Amino acid sequence: MNSSTVNTTTLNFSAGPGVLPAEVIAQASRDLVDIDNTGIGVLEHSHRGGAITRVFQEAQEDCRAVGGIPEDFEILFLQGGASAQFGMIPMNFLPTGASADYVDTGAWTTKAIKDADTVGTANVVWSGKDSGYRSIPTSDQLIWNDGAAYSYYCTNNTIYGTRWNESPRTNTPLISDMSSDIFSRPIDWDRHAMVFAGAQKNIGPAGVTLVIIRKDFMATAQSNLPAMFRYGIHADKGSMYNTPPVFAVYCAGLVFKWILSLGGVAEMEKINNRKAATIYEAIDSSDGFFTGHADVAARSTMNIAFTSPSPEVDAAFIAAAADAGMVNLKGHRSVGGIRASVYNAFPEEGCNTLASFMRSFAADNRS
Question: What is the pLDDT of residue 347?
């Protein structure tokens, strides 16, 4: 597979589900009718048959290759979205009477904290709530508890456009929600016990959640849980304890192959840095017409949140952009403004188009 290109006249800046590579969509359209010359489409095959066994094996192998994932980590394809992990993690790893450390950098960590509190105690070691979730804590702002069952953070915050530039260091098992930036840059596996990601932003369509968990950490999980909530059961069954989300895993496998065809995650990071820099330059060179939501040091390369001089001008910008073929630029309802989500598969030329439009719009609408 080659680099993704614009395959429609519309540029989709959606925060999720995000865009898929054009090559993946083309291959999936063929395999919907007949996969592996079986005469049966991918949606109709038994997950116990050879075609889907091949799909799952290759998806796992390519996932490991893309992420540089060590052999002491299990790769699981689960259901329930990333939100299911908010509860499943404490159910497995937060024993009675114990606490876990959480860093609150936005809406999704807030939800995870609430779910953890239904199982045990979530200790919030830092929160960006009072500052409007514009920043990421520095290492000296974080005081971890050595007795915590685990530590938890979210690498990239879709609503506010912030991200961690590097993973924190902890003395307890570190768990990360990477739903919106997984495989957009290398992952430091030495620092993590577990990472997870809902597929629908940077991996594929909604329906599967990627969980990558170190085997020795998985072995410490609670054993008195129903089977569907036990990581070990899913690992033993090759992510096929029950009927899996076959099509979502199939698409994720194609996306992994696409990333590898571009040169892997290291090359993906270079492309993403260029894409984001193009839009941020349009913000920073606008003489204050556009203002980024995130502090400069915490800017995301996946989700770029910004505002114009007023909500009315924001609305005019979004409408004019839609007329020009750029859609889903409205900011999240909790923040407002404008948001451009430019995940791995979003084309670089689309970022150039948006930046050019921003400069023209600013020039035409200064008071």
Answer: 96
